[in-house]
Amino acid sequence: MSDKILELKDFTVKIEDKDIVKKADFSLKKGEVAVIMGPNGSGKSTLAYGLMGHPKYEAEGKALYEGENLLEMEPDERSKKGIFLSFQYPSEIPGVTVSSFLRTAINARRPKEDPVKVQEYIKLLNEKMKLLHIRKDFAGRYLNEGFSGGEKKKMEILQLAVLNPKLAILDETDSGLDIDSLRRVCESINKLKEENPDMTVLVITHYQRMLNHLKPDKVMIMLDGQLVKEGGAELAEDLEKNGYEAYRK
């Protein structure tokens, strides 16, 4: 069996017949931490939404997930098969508690006739909140209502922890975070990786600062919808020194 969890070839994502991501070629191994870096408008988030199957985004080309054609799967099927996308701007849902939302998210991935048992869920939630140093009263708050930027990202990481996906796509998780909040979020990601070394993580970001806390196996640069360079962690350091212009063709 291949050690690749995701393999893209000529992967193109369109919005209203306009190519935003243009023939992306890359693969991710099981357990790998990979990073896509690029300036605003380069197509990074569009790539993430195309992989997740957002209906606004039309994806074509080759996209294999664990050897299966990802593009033939509905968005909920992709989620059930273990793909997770954290949103850059999570929505507020007044009246729905964090705990209720997470339990619903778990059950959405399980057969309808086999929902998670209440005690099993409470134990799981408490374990993950303890692991991530999240106070218990957080679970009783309404989803993202009145949350700070750091709390919204904390919520996304808690959801990641509870769902325990095979492939986690983190879309600009560092956006809007101060230095301390960023460090705590990255520490949480590292803890989840320690718990589940086989989880593959794809980080999408503008800046090298997140990589001061994470240890990527692979760094890719995206400019104008195209992946123009791939390398190790040293690529991000070079990018920090020389900027994106140095990689334009």
Fold-level CATH name? Rossmann fold
How far is it from the N-terminal to the C-terminal residue, by CA? 37 Å
**How many β-strand stretches?**
12
Shape: globular
Compute the CA-based radius of gyration. Answer: 18 Å
Any idea how many domains?
Answer: 1
- Strand coverage percent: 25-35%
Low-confidence stretches: none
3D structure, described in words:
The chain is of the alpha/beta class and 249 residues long. It is built from seven helices and twelve strands. Strands 6-9-10-3-11-12 form a six-stranded mixed beta sheet, with helices on both faces. It has a four-stranded antiparallel beta sheet with strand order 2-1-4-5, with helices on one face. β4 and β5 form a beta hairpin. α3 runs parallel beside α5 and α5 runs parallel beside α6. It is globular, with a radius of gyration of 18 Å.
Brief characterization of the structure:
This protein has 249 residues and is an alpha/beta fold. It has 7 helices and 12 strands. The protein is 33% helix and 29% strand.
Q: How are the elements arranged and paired?
A:
Layout: E1 4-15, E2 18-29, E3 33-37, H1 44-52, E4 58-65, E5 68-69, H2 75-80, E6 83-86, E7 93-97, H3 98-108, H4 118-131, E8 142-143, H5 149-163, E9 167-171, H6 179-195, E10 200-205, E11 218-223, E12 226-231, H7 233-242
Helix pairs in contact: 3-5, 5-6
Which keywords apply here?
249 residues, 4-stranded antiparallel sheet, single chain, Rossmann fold, 12 strands, 6-stranded mixed sheet, alpha/beta, 7 helices
